[in-house]
Amino acid sequence: MGPFIGPGPNSAGAVALRQAGEAFFGTQWQTDLAAALSALRGSTVDPAHVRRWNAGGRTIPPWVFQCIERIAAERRILIDAAIEEIKERHLTTTASPDHLY
């Protein structure tokens, strides 16, 4: 059986929205996601819309997932740069997990 597509908080869209929002912004993700969507879209996205999408009460427009993909790509670039910075400047080849604590 494939993902649940219909309305409701367990629909594929609501689940994907929630997973992305929590990954990007943590527990207060709905307001922060609305702000990020607003910035990318160039018009205000009301946090109440994000809450309704999350609850499965409204269909999530395709542009939302296009914006989420863009946010993810931008975050990936920042994360990759941070990883490289840590590797180059802060990790030594002699470090062991015992030195982490």
Question: What can you see in these coordinates?
Answer:
With 101 residues, this protein is mainly alpha-helical. It has one domain (12-94). The chain has helices spanning 12-25, 29-41, 47-55, 62-90. The longest helix has 29 residues, at 62-90. The termini are far apart. The model has no long low-confidence stretch (mean pLDDT 89).
Task: Give a concise summary.
With 101 residues, this protein is an all-alpha fold.
- Number of helical stretches of at least 4 residues: 4
Cα end-to-end separation: 45 Å
Please, what is the oligomeric state? single chain
**Low-confidence runs:** none
The strand count comes to 0
- Radius of gyration, in Å, reads 18 Å
From the spread of the alpha carbons, the general shape counts as elongated
Structural class label? mainly alpha
**Rounded mean pLDDT score:** 89
